[in-house]
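Kindly go through one protein, given below as sequence and tokens. The question is how this chain folds according to its tokens.

***
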Amino acid sequence: MPSTKHKRYTAFLVAVTGSAGIGEEAEAVTYAALKLSAEEARASVQDAVDAAAHVAVVGKLSARMAKTIKLKRNEVRVI
């Protein structure tokens, strides 16, 4: 009998900082991405922003908070 396990989605926090020149502050934006892995979350945010921006996964969002903000599977949203 085939397994009926569902794939587990996790809400990742992904920080994006723009490229700032010397003496300028880098503008930072945080995204929430509901994906299967941290690498998928980072890649989907990288696709949504400027290619020169620095993108890094910085943490996870609890399942309760992801439900509260109504984050859907495979969705990427600025928070």
